[in-house]
Amino acid sequence: MTQKKKVTFSDIAKYTNFSKTTVSRYFNDPDSLTLENQQIISDALAELNYKENKVARILANGKTEFVGVIIPDLYHHFYSEILNQILSTYEDFGYKFLVFIGNENEEAERRYIQELMAYQIEGLIVLSHTIPSQELARLSVPVVAIEREDEMISSVNTDNYMGGYQAASLLARHHCETLFYIDSPCPESRPAYGRLKGFSAFCQEQDLDNEIIIRSFENDYEATQKLLSGILDYFEENFTGQKKGIFLASDTLANVLLNLLIRRHGCLPGDYQIIGFDNSPISREAVLSISTMGQQIRTLAYEAVSLLVEQMNEQKKRKPVPWEKPVHKIIPPEFFRRETTEQ
């Protein structure tokens, strides 16, 4: 069986009576051609059943259609879900993604960025927290952050303050006698710090008994389970019989706490009300579905890629105009009431 001959620029030029230079401009700088000539070449490609050689195009114009992504870990369900949503934007924007997991290793992440730049990425999405935005802003490609320090780069974040405020409000409405917030240490420069600020603000406004519990939770189930087990011991030694409203900074933490309670008591005791944060898949898939202050993860991912594409398109212009200052988009949270709070 004979192999079909590949269609070349020479074949397209002959078919359309254009020069090979004109055909090349169609692929690399289509705006330099009239709409009529663009249509003629487009029709010819369809008639000739042309299959684009992506490698040749990259070599010709240096545009790889690659975007780099650096995430902190895949232990927290938020990161795995937002990565899934970022990858799904290919159908809308046509960019492919090269992904690295930082694991909070600053020097490793710098090596990953060098590797990505060697692959001629056109832009970078960063969710990890190790490298300051001032350093990221010096890269030669546009950078967009999601839920991390973002002073010098554009970003897309949830309204974390409102999420914390609303979570405390919902627990108070269920007549919880003491409200608790559980999280890992979080610097004020990170958007997630707003969850603590919002929670504390509501409790202060309403003069509610509350307690902030900060522990160094690792990206390890057994270590997290041990720390949360100690917190449960504290609750049961000091707040027995009191209705406790617990807001955890992630659905991952909320799921571990829920598992511990069910193992101890065979059910979720009536004096516990639990709200997580993220609306990652684990909140729906847990042994009891977890009420959560949901980040609109699909929207966060789509808006981040869209914002990056805007900047990349600007860089492709003959005379690009750099943005005067970073753009910060804020996405409102959405509460999902499930089995860990009263209906």
Tell me what you see in this structure.
The protein has 343 residues and is of the alpha/beta class. The protein contains 14 helices and twelve strands. It has helices at 9-16, 20-28, 35-48, 54-61, 77-87, 90-93, 106-118, 133-136, 160-173, 193-206, 221-238, 251-265, 281-285, 297-315; strands spanning 66-71, 96-101, 123-126, 143-146, 154-158, 178-183, 210-214, 244-248, 272-278, 292-294, 328-331, 334-336. A six-stranded parallel beta sheet has the order 2-1-3-4-5-11, with helices on both faces. A six-stranded mixed beta sheet has the order 7-6-8-9-10-12, with helices on both faces. It is elongated and about 85 Å long. It starts with 8 loop residues before the first helix and ends in a 7-residue tail after the last strand. The mean pLDDT is 92.
List the defining traits of the structure above.
alpha/beta, 343 residues, 6-stranded parallel sheet, 14 helices, 6-stranded mixed sheet, 45% helix
